[in-house]
Every structure is written in C-alpha cells, then in structure tokens.
Amino acid sequence: MxxxxxxxxxxxxxxxxxxxxxxENYLPGFLALLRSLALSNPGLCEDFIVLHDDLKPSSxxxxxxLHPRVELRRVDAARYxxxxxxxxxxxxxxxxxxxxxxxxxxxxxxxxxxxxxMVVLGDLGELLKLREGLAAVPQxxxxxxxxxxxxxxxQREYLSDEFCARIDATGRxxxxxxxxxxxxxxxxxxxxxxxxxxxxxxxxxxxLSGDLPVPDDTVVLHFTGRHxxxxxxxxxxxxxxxxxxxxxxxxxxFHAAFLAQSKGAHHDLLVHFGTPHVRRTGDVESAxxxxxxxxxxxxxxxxxxxxxxxxIPLDSAWPHEVLGHAxxxxxxxxxxxxxxxxxxAAPNRAATAFGRLAQIAWIHGDDDAAQRYALDxxxxxxxxxxxxxxxxxxxxxxxxxxxxxxxxxxxxAFYMERQGNAGDKLLPESVRLAFDADPGxxxxxxxxxxxxxxxxxxxxxxARRGLVVGGGGLFIPDTAPNGNxxxxxxxxxxxxxxIDVPVMVYxxxxxxxxxxxxxxxxxNTALRTLVERASFFGLRNHGSIEKVRALLPAGLHDKVxxxxxxxxxxxxxxxxxxxxxxxxxxxxxxxxxxxAGLRFGHDYGHFLAEMAKAVRALGAHAGVKCVAHSLDDxxxxxxxxxxxxxxxxxxxxxxxxNDAIRDTYARTKLVIGMxxxxxxxxxxxxxxxxxxxxxxxxxxxxxxxxxxxxGISVHDKNLGAVLTERALGLLDDHAASVADVHGxxxxxxxxxxxxxxxxxxxLGRRPAP
Length: 769
Description:
Layout: E1 16-21, H1 27-40, E2 47-52, H2 57-65, E3 70-74, H3 81-84, H4 91-98, E4 110-114, E5 118-120, H5 125-129, E6 134-138, E7 147-155, H6 161-173, H7 181-190, E8 195-196, E9 203-204, E10 220-222, H8 238-245, H9 251-260, H10 267-281, H11 284-296, H12 300-307, H13 317-329, H14 333-343, H15 347-363, H16 367-380, H17 385-394, E11 409-413, H18 422-433, E12 444-448, H19 455-462, E13 467-469, E14 472-475, H20 493-496, E15 503-510, H21 520-533, E16 536-539, H22 542-549, E17 560-562, H23 570-573, E18 586-589, H24 596-600, H25 604-619, E19 623-628, H26 635-644, E20 650-652, H27 658-667, E21 670-673, H28 677-684, E22 689-693, H29 696-704, E23 711-713, H30 719-732, H31 734-762
Parallel strand pairs: 1-2, 1-4, 2-3, 6-8, 9-10, 11-12, 11-13, 13-15, 14-15, 15-16, 16-17, 18-19, 18-21, 19-20, 21-22, 22-23
Antiparallel strand pairs: 4-7, 5-10, 6-7
Helix pairs in contact: 6-7, 9-10, 10-11, 11-12, 11-13, 12-13, 13-14, 13-15, 14-15, 15-16, 15-17, 16-17, 25-26, 25-30, 30-31
C-alpha cells in the first residue's frame, strides 16, 4: 500500500497528531477529553486535528483554550450521503461517518483518533511508539476479528488515496453492518487485519455494568452507548461516570489542577495553561514553573516578562534564581546579579545562584570575581558541575603569548575547555589553519564569543589586522543566550559597527534544531548588522545559506556565500599530513544526547533497539567502539548494555588533544556519527562516514557533498538493517570508499581555495612575516 509522504523534515522525525470529530452535541465530551489528556499526560503535546462540519465561534474558542496546537478542518458532509442512505440527520450516524475523514489526512506519519465520549486516565506513550499498521482494541461483544473504532492508531500507509478508495467503495456498496457505520466499514475493509491493542486503551463502559469500578490500569475510558455523562448518564455506571466528572472543570479549576501536578509538563501546555493562571492569581510558584519552561525553550524575554510581573517575596529563593537566569540571558546583568544574590540565601538554590554569578563575572572579563563566586558555589555543593567548570576556567589564568598586534588576526570563537566537546575543541585551530599555517598565539588574538564584547575588546581587535568570526554552529539561540545579538557572539550592534578592521565570518552554521526558533526581532537585526559590516560572510553549508538569506533583505543575499567547515578539508590544511598506511579494523559509533527530545521525539527506544541490531551485525566484521565527543555521548554505551546486553568499549575523545582527535579518526575504517563533527572531522581525515541524522545540519552537509545516501534518519523504521547494509557496502571495497571521500573532499577544497584568494584581497595581500 502506497501513500504520499507527509510534509517532510530533513531529520525524518515522525509527525504525530491526535484527531477527533467534534459537533456541538458532543462538545462537552470533547472538552472533558482535552482536559483529561492534559492532566493524565502532561508531558505530551502533539498536534490535535478537530474534524467538524459546523462549530460555533464560541465553541472554537473554548477548544483552543484547552489545547495550544489545535487545527480545525471542516469535513465534506455530502461525501457520506451515499453511505448514510437517508440517515445523515442522525447525529450518531454523521459522527461515525465523518471520522472516516481522518484517513484523508496526508501531512502526518501517525494519527491517533480519540472519540469525544472518551476520557484519558493513563499514559498514552506506548501508542505514540507504534510504527506499524493500523492498531485498535478488538470489540468486546463481537469477537476478536473486529475492531472498535473509538481509538485507532493509524500509520502512514493507511493515510492514503488507495485506502480511502477502498473505504468509499465499501461505503457505497453497503457491504457492511448497517448499524455499525464507520467501524462496520472499517471492519469490512480490514477483515480482521489490524494490530490488536490491549482493552485498557479503549475500555468500554459496558464492561462496568452493575456499577463496577474502573480498573486501575485503564488508559482510555470510553462511554459507548447513547447515554453520555454530560447528558445525565445512565443507571448502573455511577463509578465510571465519577471518573468522567473529574474532568468537568472550569478553566480556573483546570489550570490550577494542571499547575499543581505539572512536573515534567510539556513546554507548550505549561505556557498555555500557566500564563492565564499566573495572570489571574499572581501565584509565584506557578510563575516560576512557567518562566523555567520559557527559559528551557529559549524564550528568555517571555520569562522575564512573566516572572517579573509578580511580587516575589524576599525569602523565595528559587523564583529569584530563575528570574536572575532569565535576566542574564537578555543581558540585563545588573538586575540579574541582584536577583541571584537574593537566591544565594537559600542552601538549596545557592550553588546554582553562585554559579550564575560566576558566569556573569566571567562574561564581563572579571576572572577574580568569577573564581570567588565559583568557590562559594562549591562550598555549598562540592559536586556542583557549573561552579566546578567556572572555577577551573578562571584558576591561574595565563596571559597568552603575544605577537605583534598589527601582524595578528583576532579570532572570535567558542573556545572549549578541558573535557569539552571534542569537535568544538578542534574547530578554532582548524579555522586558523585555513588562514595561516601557524594557529598559535603569535599569529592570533583569541576573543571568546561568549564574553561581552566591550570597549576594551573593541580596542584590542582594532589593533589587529583583521577579525575572523567562526567556525562552528554559532547561529544557535540557546547555547550562550544574550540580549545583545541573540546568537553566540555577545556583541552589541553599536560596537560591531565600530570595528574598523576587516570582519570575516568564516564557516559559521545555522544550528537550530527542527522545532527550535530564534528571538526573531533581535536576531534578525543583529544578523543584518553583521552581514552589512562583514567583508566576507561564509556559511558552512547551503542549508544554512538558505536559512540566513531568508532573514535578510534581497540586497544582501549575494554577500552570503559557501565556505565549508575547515574540518572537512583537514588533509589539505594540516602541514605535513600523510594518510595512514594501515587502518585499525574498527568502526567508531557516536551518538549525541543534548536536546534529546528534539533529536529523538518518541523514538529513542526504537533507535536504541535498531542500533543494537546494527552493532551486533557489524561486530562480526570489525570491532565496534563508542567514540564520545562529550561526557554525555557515553550514554549510548550504558543504554545498549542495560537494555540490550550489547557492550561497546568507550573512547573518551573529550579528553583528547587536537592531534589525537585527528589521528583516531584517520586510523579507523568507518565512523557512524550523530554529531555534526563526528561526520565532518573523520571525513576531513579521509575516513568514510555514515551520519545518524537527528539535526538538519547533517543532511545539509551530505547534500553539499552529493552523498545523501551516507545519512540515515534516527527515526528510520528499518534503521538497523539499513545502517548495516550501508556500512558493509562501504567496508566491502574500502579502498574505493576512501577514494570517494577524497574526491568529495577535493570539491570542498576548491571552494576553500577560491575563498582564500578573496580573503587575501580583503586582508590587503599582506604576506606572513
């Protein structure tokens, strides 16, 4: 069975939606359903498609108030006239037929239908993990070969013109049970061929005749029959109807109930329900929760506005700490200090507050104050990681070896410290090698992107012969938030405009995940200022170029050009590079876990199981090891051993120097990596790669080298088999695979050389001394 793909994402992330048919008659039931869904699954917020044929504006408003991601789609009532045979005025008949429109949805991979006479009592997570077929609970009264259509989990192959044609043909023929309507049509079409779910996912009221209690493991309770709880109910089902009435709440009651149990709540739900609750009540604890959700999503100004609008008692440390975090993220540093100092009074928040105070001091170039605050944080909590990192960053600061300023280039970059991300550690040196064979302090003046670019920094930069900005994914909104630029370089527009040496933006990436956004106003203005000021503006992939050009006026589009990440041409840049005469019989596997929800969605369990299959299969051909760019990357080794009994030795690349990083990747036969630089660095060292795509930048890079087949989505239904097949294909004729990498790399080197010629002109063709 074929079907058109839904609106695609570069990462292959599955799009999932709930769907219901809603009429004015069943609106009270649907509102209770929405409340029950939020209260029983606070961490779940997928799109909700409301099929309807005529809802009042006031009803639409009530629906939108109970779900932040509702889309209304009107059904064609005439479509089912030939099915209904004159009975279309009967609401139950219309409702039954109209839900068939769910099979006409084309923009989702999985659609879960919920009837409007249901309430959700338990965790629906297992349903969202389903990947195959059409799943339903068998009918209680009519045998295991028939389904109850109140809850369906429908995969893409059924959301197709072909399946709709089968429904239409069956409906017009009348070859189905006339009193069962849509489920009669579906049962006739499917003929028992569906995935059977446990009864707890569609537990029908009739099972509780005689006023039986609802079983504790019930996930979805379905009030089948003509007598609905909001219409007065039915004798003999009192205990079931008590469960329904738990969700017959006013908006104020519902918001309070959600905020009272919102641990682990989805950002969209917490903001949607929490904001009106805070505005109505002024509750500080609720405001803290909602502000923290805003911060986690990079919505720093929204956090400031909400939490700053309530009165925080002096002794409420946690709200002060969250507000301080939000204020420093929009560069209101003095106000942030005041809030964080108040938070240090409480032992349970003091370490975090001191860590943030240390960060503010470091941002302003005050290493001594940063050291003191970090030590204060460690005295409160010796295990506090942020304070420990800041303490190590600022202890015994060493003055860099200075060259002659007029002969140096200044370099804005993210300089990674010990045990930091291996890719980010290698990047600054790789960028420098593209300009000069000497990447050291004699030729370069370092400017950390995350420190405030102030008057003193401006003076130092203007004393150099030029300023290089890059590389790496500096265009990302939440790695080092600030209100001056809304991307990683903490530079005010006014100071950027006063730089009077050439500004060269080199191999920077637009690094937003699927579903992640920037603070459009501030970022767009800062971006435009940067492009206008730059003498050279090179982005590391064409995907980033497309994204950035879309944010700029047409007159600036031509300034944005392609400059590959220099790590991808390492063999050309490193002086005296020689390819290894022999390679180790190993395959290195890398997985990334930052922003895991954005990477994996509901598919992490699937990803892990498929990786276990691939590791077992590939282990018969080579030694498979985990290569960890950061400490968190070791999680795949722990999880594979715990969940699937698969053991992987771990290479702690976060502890490596740059030469060791390059050497390790040059000597292996294949790298299977999820981080961008777990693909680009080995590729640059001449090693074949396969990318596990969980971020658009992976697909961007493979598109640039015209090898999309070297990438596999972490969401791929057959990930294990596909990964094994492609990996063995690269290993079977390894010499040809390496030659292919070299050929692809040569194309990137041509671009880099052409840009280098232009950069020499920008810098006045000044020869190296």
